[in-house]
Amino acid sequence: SKVNIDVPSISGELEFCPHQIHLLGDGNFTSARANTCVYSNKWMYEVTLGSGGIQQLGWTTINTQWNNEEGVGDHHNSYAYDGSRVKKWNIHKYNYGKSWEKGDVVGCCIDLDEGTMTFHQNGECLGVAFEMQNTIQANNKRSGDQLAYFPAVSLSHNESCWINFGETPFVCPVEGYQPIQPPDDHVAQHGTHRAYICACLRKLTMLITEQHLADNDDNLVDIVSLYGALLVRIVEYSCVETDGKLTVQKCDEFVEMVVELHRTNPSSLDTLLQFMPLVLDSDTLDTLLSFTVHRLCFQCSILRPVHAWTSGMESASSTTHKSGASSPSVSLSSSSGTTPVPSRSSSKATGKDDLHQLPGNKYLRCLVKFLTKEVMQCWINGSHSIYLDILNMLSVKPPDLEEGKELFPNVWWTGSLFDGEYELNELQIEIFINRVRGFAALVSVEDRYRKSLLLRLAHDFPGVFSGFLDFCVNTMRANRFGMYSTSPRFDGDAAVRVFFGALEYFNSVLEPTQSAGQGDIHSKDPALRHKPLCTWPYQHLVHEDQESKDLQRFGGLLSYLKKDYPLQPNGVDRSSSSDETSCKSDHPSSLPNDVAHYHWIFKRVTQLYCLGVKDKIGRATHLATTRGRLAEKMQSLLKENSSKANSTREDLYVHIRKCAWEYIVFFGNIGEEQLCSLANRVIQIFTFYEDSILFRYLPNYLLELVVSILQMLRKTYKDYVPLTTSQPEIILFLLTHVQDERIVNPDVKELILSSVNSLMDADARRREVVVSILKQENCHKYISQFFSSILSCFSDSHNWVTVIDILLKFYSGLGFGFPDDEDGDDINLDLFIDCPKEKPALEYHTRCSLFFSGEFRRFCERNPEDANLFINSIFNHVNWSMSELAISLAEQRPTSGFLPGNLNSTRKCSIMFDMTCKLLTILEFATDVLKYLFFEKQTETPTSSPNSKSGDRSALNVSLVAEVVAHALHRYTCGEGCQELDRVIELNIRGLQSIKKARVLAPVAGILVNMVLDAPDHSSRPNNLLVHNLASNTDRKWSMESFQYLQSINWRMELADGSKKAVCNKFSLLQSPVLQEVLKTSNESNRALRMQQEKALELDREDSDDQICAICCSAPNNCTFKPCEHHSCEACIARHLLNSKKCFFCNSEVVEVVAMDGADL
Questions:
Q1: Is the pLDDT of residue 43 over 90?
Q2: pTM for this model (two decimals)
Q3: Is the pLDDT score of 343 beyond 50?
Q4: What contacts 744, CB < 8 A, 6 or more positions away?
């Protein structure tokens, strides 16, 4: 009887494939055992890994019970090996073996005579795993028989493997161990015969091809007869018939013959495929060809890059030399010489007949020639795992650590020249660069071949292609119950290839257009009436299937939307009477086939991006960020001659090689224009439904797709500026929907705001994309909407932190001091030294900021309420951040190690310092751009009242600025007020090295210059409002030494950040004698006023409690709240009423404020 999986023993769900025994875990942890056991002698079975994740392979007894968390090796009489975690299992886990990967062959051996279990990996013995003489030889208490052991496996979700119990010869047999399933006699006995017959068939095929023997009708009968005899023998020696169905048991010799035919002469495959249908019946032909394609696809997925790209180079070079062909190439340098490799640009000219001349994946190149439409049909007819075959065809096995060293023996990074232990000469650097570029060009060619195969399948067999996309989406979604990363067997590289293949097919499908016979059909869907727009029909937005119900939408879940915003059967709100939406709606299936197919492809393409590609980009970004941090750490350790440099160096080199791999398989070969086109199609959907209630029904993941594509293009694509400028709809939509009330999910709002922040890139050229779009004549209307949304977010308690960075970019390059070289957040792989970033001129750098600051000033002038709200929010945020910074500085203590509490305190202190610096810079921006809010405009009419409302507000704003400046001069310059800051800087705590006085004082210096020297009332500087308020502000102590400290700072050196230099626009103005004289006079007046108040308090200490303001504790009470009659000073009352209309003391509503002396306020 045949050894197979015992179905009743299965815990979970498994899928089977007839080519050997293929298992696929569909549950959380699926376990199964064989239907045959052993109890004496030495036995083995073999497992070929279909994925490299968690699998437990071994032996178990019949009484072992499994569940969705415990499997083989988790019980007393159960033993297993897991190469993913490099452990062996028997109730407890122990270190054993080595890491395995997809395609590895594991031999599971049991010696019941000696009482040992051993595992072999790719023919290498891993040592004795278990010595169980007391267990295996133990007698069964009831029968006295020895314990019997069953082969058993446990698989995690979406893990797969092929089990060979011995019905086919083992790949790595172990001497002395018998297969559990003896092979069929003719398969075992005729292994040598198969190889000989395949060799004869290859020679016959080559002879027919080279001498054109098939062209002669006289020879055709003999050729067919000879072909038939050979192929029949191959089938006889390779297949067995089970239940009336022919199944291939062992035929790798035929597969290798096909590969060799393609390598020698690709035209010979045409000869082979010409004669096979003539001599084999349809069922046999389907079985043999489907197995051949299956094995070719599997070999594509497990072929290691080292073998594919290096071992094939010599043969490719020699073949090219023999044939005399001159294929286009780039230099791929290595330690042994130079080998021709196709470049990305020249690969487009490479024809199919030249595939055999190129190094790389020989199985993939063979598939391109072998997989004709007829072979595809046979593959579909005879395969039971076609979706897995397609997935294998699209997969590339990533190199492990050792293979990474073999691919890139030398690596380069920006600090290589300073690393004495690892000196690189120019030749070694050139070798590394050429290898990365050469491999990227090679993968680009191979990816184009994979995509061509996928497109061929899509056009010729759309049903299979549709099922494959469904399989991919469902597999991704099921992995983590949401739109996250793919499962281990569906790696990120394969997801990227599936997406770009589907996207190219989507772009190749003609968009359904309105025709004479389809007018009534298109009238049912308003989205189809605006050409060339063709979007989702609204039926897809409200369809009641499970997939649509679970979607998160702009307005919430579908069930809540239908309750709060009900629709008529035609898909519009009940209050709508538009002719465009007054027609009756049908189910999506009632749409024409081409329209429904078009919408379905679009849906799957967008889902593939969100489920697979976005996660791949996130992992690559994290990898590049880690590499950058390691490089900075390495440079620091080299300067310190630290002993930790060696371990850091190894980690850095590993990440550099991983970054090189990411560049090779993804970032060097993406379709940027297609991605931008896809994002633009999504924006067309949003724009079309903009004024409809259906806008709330749009799914969130479409917006996530647009944002992710835009960010990736901004970070990686050199032509980002012209590409996005030519399609402004994407950017305009994001700018105008920052605070859309119809979007209820706060995470989506934060996503839009973050994307706008990314658009305002620190790189001036990319930031100018937004400027060039907003400067267009038809886009001026969007500016006010954008600024209004930004200011609304700034006053919001949830989103104001993100708005800070946007506002800072409005003022980038215009402040008192700033780093000269502001880099964007590129995914900078630092692989090439011959492509330095071009440094923009300062005028170019500030051009965007001048545009935004000018437009922002004009917006505030037209919207005074928004402007006042903006100023109020600045003071509220600044006062809060300065208070929190003072508390955080006081909490810092020197420590020998890092405790969780210390880490949190350090992180908070660093964040609050950065926040304070940014908010002070925004205040500097306001005092520079919005000067009219701080200085009353002079009028020519002598009757204008000095106590006008605008004048009062300006005076209040200036007094608040004076408080901030006085506090900063006292706390952040010198003297007893800044002791806490000085102490933290001296401690040099890790994580707080970025705290520098110059960073927090630069905006303070800029505010002084803006408010005194650049003020509209500069002709009367002694009467300047800021100077006057600094003199009268007795609550904040400040000294003239503080201002002198500002003048003594070397701003260019202190503001520089590492290699980034700094620019100080107004340093010379800070040295102005006029400014020094004015501030000196103000400081003297302030000191005299404080002394006067102290004497008054000493004389009337007993009676002063009721006369001094309880809020500021310095000024006398001179105003009263009505009707509660509480007292305070005029300045505190005015400041409090900016944010609240309730009494500071009793929280009652304030009707009016009157002066205690009866004067008007």
A1: yes
A2: 0.73
A3: no
A4: 554, 555, 556
